[in-house]
Amino acid sequence: MIREASYDEVFDSQRHFRSILDSMARPGKINQMKDLEFDPPVGLMRSTAAVCLSLLNHDVSFYLSRGNQTEEEFLKINTGSRPSSMEEADFLIVDEAESPDMVRFVKEGLLTYPEQGATFIIQTRGVSEERIEGYLGIHMEGPGINGDKDLYVSGLKADWIDVLKEKNSEFPLGVDVILVNDAPEGRLNIACIPRSARISEVA
Amino acid sequence: MIETEKFSRSYNYGFIDESTKKEIRRKILKAVAVPGYQVPYSSPEMPISRGWGTGGLHASLSLIGPDDVFKIIDQGSDASVNACNLRNFVRRMTDCRTTFDTAEATIIQTRHRITEEVLTDKQIIVFQVPQPEVLRSVERYEFKTRQMHAEADYAKMWVSLYESYVKFGAIMQGAGYPVKVNKRYIMTPSPIPRWDVPNLSHSDTLHVFAAGREKRIHCVPPHTLVEPLEFEDIKFMVESFDGIQCSVTGGTDAFMDEIYESDGDRKHTINDSNFMDKVRVGIRPRQRLFKNPA
Amino acid sequence: MGYVAIKGGEDAIENASRLTEYERVNSRTKPLEIDQIRTQLGSLVDKIMGEGSLYAPEHAALALKQAQGCPLEGAFILRAYRATLNRSYSSDIVDTRSMRVVRRISSAFREAPGGQILGPTRDYTVRMLNTDLASETKEDFERFISEFDFLDTDVLEEPKPFSKIMDILMEQGMLHGVDEDEDRRVVDITREAVKFPAPRSASLQMLARAETGGLCALAYSSMRGFGSTHPTIGELRVGKVKVVVSDRRGRKRCIGNIKVTESEVISKLKQKSRDPVPYMTLGYGLCFGHNETKAICMGILDRAMRVKDEHPANSQEFVLYHTEGVESYGFTNHLKLPHYVTFQSGLDNLRKAMKRKQDAMKSGEKPLAVPANAEDAVDPAPELL
User: Fold this and answer.
1) Which domain holds residue A75?
2) The pLDDT of residue C153
């Protein structure tokens, strides 16, 4: 596998980062990232690749819950980052259909250094700020949110909310979540749930 | 022998190498997720002195892209010599458009002020922070202050504020008044004057505080509760400029500079240079004004 | 819209910078050549390579020329340049036992295996101002060099591995090189901010980058009475060591030689709680170039910081933060930046305090204190800006 030459390490990563930052600073807000000019391997969404290429490098490690050799190789070559165990990983890339049990085992940081808590990148088939039937509604309050905010995610099981709530119950310890979704017409959607958000299921 | 071409070669976009930018970006994201907490970061040397805005540059240059419009102020002024120097550097390293107009800027780097004009959700404000550790005045060791933050043990800080009240009849903290963010971390709002402190709370804008020399980044996301430390009966007060008029524009209700003339006369001018320019031509940009409790 | 508030800041800084340059060239003397600085001001070049954290004699000489000889500024320029360079490899551990020694002394023994080698040193010269140097010529250089013609440079270049004095003492169990509970993680403080308590690797790295004068002041304080580190120099060696990296295929490549100064200082006896036999401890220093003061002071402070005591040099945070030259230089100079906004905030407090006093006097109450000046008006949490 060779490195993606069509990715602009300077400008693509900067634009993608600003979308991620805006979504992290405004939990539940969906931003559209600029599309990529290449196709990542099948296990990685284009939006996942955009987030990874923007944030990962040799200083951090990742864990692919369902990835095979190809996905792993793609991330290694394009970011310099290294694969690691679930317990050690800085970034965990998972699919929405998966059980949230692993959240219990990942890094949540130390009280003196809470930033060492892991970041989840959850690949979804749909995210929306408007209610969609069958989607899991996540109600959020907290920093970055003017009042409250609902975010709807396809395919995510309701127990994700309970597990995340538990993991983030001893703030500032916890994990931060980036939800990604490849929408039609090359729209790469992104929304975030930082550990500071107080979440519950939309009634 | 030195290859002279090496010195004339162009630097990376934004001066900082991409690997370090990624690290700074990850740290900014974590600082956003834990509002008010100081995230350590690598803080490489910049070609300007430590203590002169290296942290601000790290943050701004990790955020900035070709579509951004950059504004930088020092003590409220676009014309301050250090602001000019840093503006030129950022322009040279990014080719970005720069501006004095607060409303037009997408990234505003500042030292010691928040603009009078209210900032929007399309803007990010980056503060140059000299001393990020709000507890340093009551505890000199970093490993101890870190522990205090970890346990939210802020007793020493409260005692020191109360002692000030007993001794002087007021909390005498000038600029850099300590605040509590999201009911969890006590934080220094860089040393902005008290006048600006209420504007940190529930604003539409992301605030990034970067201390280069001390290698720490902390953030106040938009719509976040930021409370100045006060007691039930001893309230936080902003600087009072009651009855004071700007000698250039006639404007009131803004942070004022106090200027002494050669003959000893005293006059005042609006501190925020762009705000003053707008007031002078009859535009009054939207402001959030805090009224001191009676 | 006219920008009334903008007053010529741009022109001012441009002119200030040109004036500085004018002061350098105004004399119309012969421009300094980089090679002259590198060779004839070698001690200064070595010092700023260490503080600049970049082994590059020519670049260091250039930085010094640009800084008009100010070592703090020179080290700063070099550091800023260093920060723009990509890190392609990490070197293997340098073994100083295979150093090509030009100078090697031990104060611990009269004679040492391999011998005491005085080498180049000013230690035993009388420091009288040498007026002859004022009228020195190139011919004088040649005449002096010709006196060294008998030297066989091939023999000089032959590496002579020396065993270390430390090894002798360690083999006998009298000296312990590391503490039992030592944090031996290898961290790089240029890639992540230092965390306290810092592992010894971070501590030594920061000392190696620290400002020589700052190290000297604190090491001296520890020796003189604010502490009890009065060590014996087990060994001090100066010479060249090979730097080896592994390329992408794992092959070892020597990328060059660098001159370093290494000191191993033996400190007083220590005793373990469960072992009545005391032992000696070691302080270590290694820095770029020939800079014996720095290496020795590093050794003293490396030891002092691992002693639990209350003196300044015993505090890792105190020593490491405050000997950092580029940071202390920048921050002390930042006081020249305008601070009128923060000052105004202090004035406001002071005026209100004075008013409270007046009001209290009028009503006959006991007045509260008024701070003596505007700086104190920000007490009790002094504004650290």
Assistant:
1) 11-126+158-195
2) 66
Residue-number span of the structural domain to which C52 is assigned: 13-82
**CA–CA dist B108, A170 (Å, integer):** 34
Say if the Cβ atoms of B39 and A115 lie within 8 Å: yes
Residue predicted with more confidence, C148 or C53:
C53
Total domains in chain C come to 3
B115-128: pLDDT as tens digits: 999 999 999 999 99
Question: B203, B201, B226, B34: which is closest to A197 by C-alpha?
Answer: B34
- pLDDT of the residue at C154: 62
Residue B206, chain A, CB below 8 Å: the answer is yes
Residue B146 sits at the chain A interface (C-beta within 8 Å): yes
> Is C380 in contact with B160 (Cβ distance < 8 A)?
yes
Is the pLDDT at B178 greater than 80? The verdict is yes
Residue B122 shares a structural domain with residue B247: no
The helix/strand count (H/E) of chain A reads as: 4, 11
In a domain, B143, yes or no: no
| C272, pLDDT greater than 90 | no
CB of B132 within 8 Å of a chain C CB? The answer is: no
Average pLDDT value over all residues in chain C: 88
Residue of B nearest to A119 (CA): B30
Question: C159 phi and psi, to 5 degrees?
Answer: -65, 135
C3's tokens: 């920008």
Chain B residue whose CA is closest to A14: B65
Tokens 């809470």 belong to residue: A114
Per-residue pLDDT at C159: 61
Taking a contact as any Cβ pair under 8 Å apart, which residues of chain B between 6 and 65 contact chain C? 11-12, 15, 17, 23, 40-47, 49-52, 54
Please choose, from the candidates B70, B87, B90, B69, the residue with its C-alpha nearest in 3D space to the C-alpha of residue B79.
Answer: B87
The pLDDT mean for chain B works out to 93
pLDDT digits (tens, 9 = 90+) for C330-359: 999 999 998 999 888 889 888 888 888 888
| Angle, helices B18-33/A46-55, rounded to nearest 10 degrees | 110
* Assembly ipTM: 0.97
Q: Which residue has the higher pLDDT, A4 or C301?
A: C301
Task: Tell me if B81 and C3 make a contact (CB, 8 A cut-off).
Answer: no
Task: Mutation target for C interface from B18, B87, B173: give the one with most C CBs within 10 A.
Answer: B173
d(CA B186, CA B188): 7
**Cβ within 8 Å, pair A10-B37:** no
Cβ separation B25–A54 shorter than 8 A? yes
On the question of pLDDT at B2 being above 70, the answer is no
Residue the block writes with tokens 């109450």: C365
Q: Which residue has the higher pLDDT, B70 or C153?
A: B70
In a domain, residue B214? The reply is: yes
Put simply, the answer to whether C3 touches B175 (Cβ < 8 Å) is: no
Secondary structure of chain B: what % helix, strand, coil (to 5)? 30, 20, 50
- Better-scored residue on pLDDT, B109 or B172: B109
Q: Within a domain: residue C88?
A: no
Residues C294, C192 share a domain? yes
Q: Distance (Å, rounded) from C-alpha B254 to C-alpha C242?
A: 63
Closest chain A residue to B14, measured at CA: A10
Q: Name the residue of chain B whose CA is nearest to A11's CA.
A: B65
| Strand order across the C275-288 sheet | C100-105, C232-246, C252-272, C275-288, C175-176
Q: Is B251 on the interface with C (CB under 8 A)?
A: no
User: How does residue B132 score in pLDDT terms, banded at 50, 70 and 90?
Assistant: very high
Inter-chain contacts counted by CB atoms under 8 A, chains B and C: 216
- In this structure, the answer to whether residues B213 and B268 fall within a common structural domain is no
Asked whether residue C243 falls in the same domain as residue C365, the answer is: no
B2 contacts C59? CB cut-off 8 A: yes
The mean-pLDDT minimum among A63-77, B6-20, B56-70, B221-235 falls in B6-20
Has residue B110 been placed in a domain? yes
